[in-house]
Amino acid sequence: MTYGYSTSQDRHLNYLNVDLALSVLDFGLAFFNTQQGEDRVLMREQREIRAGQNLSLDVAKAYFQVAAAQKAIKITTSLLEDCRSRYEVISKLSKSRDITPFRAFEETRRFVDMEKRLTNYIRTYENSCVELRSLLGMRPAGKILVDDSMLNKVPEFNSLPDIELMEQIALLQRPELYEIDMQKHINVIECRKTILMMLPNVRIYTDFTNSTNSFLYHMSWYELGIRAAYNLLKLPQQIARYQAYSSQVDAEEARTFAQAIGVMAQVRISHANLIATKERFDINDKVYKTYNDNLKWAVANQKITGELSRLELDHMRLETAETEIDRLMTLGNYYVAYYRILNSIGVRHIDAKSLGELRNELAQAKVRAAEELEKARRTYDEDRAKRVAANTNLQNLTELETTIVNQPLTKFNDVDFIAIYDATPEKANSMLNEKR
């Protein structure tokens, strides 16, 4: 017999060990990361929506440029052929001494200038075709024919609401504002993640072990526990990170107001552009009608005799065609100005049905905004009541007033001054006037 114990074990042993650890911090970070991932997906969707709106406006601009230039080419094709034949007429009149050389030079210069202006529309048409085909995802080379029947009538955009209502719709529909709100929410979640990382990292773990040794009293055993690790040296870094993200939240909020003001300015600028374009079209339309009436009167009532009179009549035709083309170009710009308003508002079309839906959505948004303002007002009243209750001691309040009065105006403690104002507003106003 000995003082020691004897042990026995099987010749071949097999151990099975299963460990399971759950980190509470990782669960919290995963939850916040999921929210940020959803916000980033929504931001990408808003960017795609805005890119689609801008692409629609660019396509509309190129489309109406092509349509106006296309009609201009139809108008000028036969006139340019007549211009080339008129050079021979001028040369014939000059040789026969019917006109002086100076008059021949002047007539030739007038036709050349008119021909240059009219051929510029062909270049505009070619450039607009390249731009439109590129926007449509087609090969830039080659021409393209578009339907220009909408330029045969003058539209009346009477469905546009008031400018104030359009601003409200823009603030509700523009994707950029939603994108800024989502970025602000991402920064808010970063602040919450930083606060979570300041807490101890708690881990719940389970350890299960199984042995094939038949001589053991217990062949399977497990242990369950909680392990906490607290990194105090990381606290200053996390505090600085929280302050940085808080500053970003404030910056995003200021950016929201700035972007909203910019959106409202775009709506007003596009509305003013629509009015100005309509005025320019009315002027060009009036000029064209005057030229056209004079041309019709000249053709119908004046008996044309001789080549010289025909030259003057051809000049009238060319100038009338130029005024007609200017009218068509301005009409195309008028259509584009309307689409620019839709782009600044953030909608594809405005009709009675869609306008009614937008009005209902605005009414719901006003109700939600009123609830948020009421909630903020209650929170402020509660904080104010706490500040007043904390300064019920008049002696301490007097000492605090003396301290603030002795300080420079630039070093006023905002919290203390608000507390004095909540308790005695008259005294706070007199203090401020005294310091001023």
Automatic annotation (TrEMBL):
Its main location: membrane. The keyword Transmembrane applies. It is found in: Cell outer membrane. Gene3D superfamilies: Outer membrane efflux proteins (OEP). Residues 355-386 form a coiled coil. Keywords: Cell outer membrane, Coiled coil, Membrane, Transmembrane, Transmembrane beta strand. GO terms for cellular component: cell outer membrane; efflux pump complex. It comes from the Bacteria. GO terms for molecular function: efflux transmembrane transporter activity; porin activity. PANTHER family: OUTER MEMBRANE PROTEIN TOLC (PTHR30026:SF20). This is TolC family protein. It comes from Victivallis vadensis. The lineage of its organism: Bacteria, Pseudomonadati, Lentisphaerota, Lentisphaeria, Victivallales.
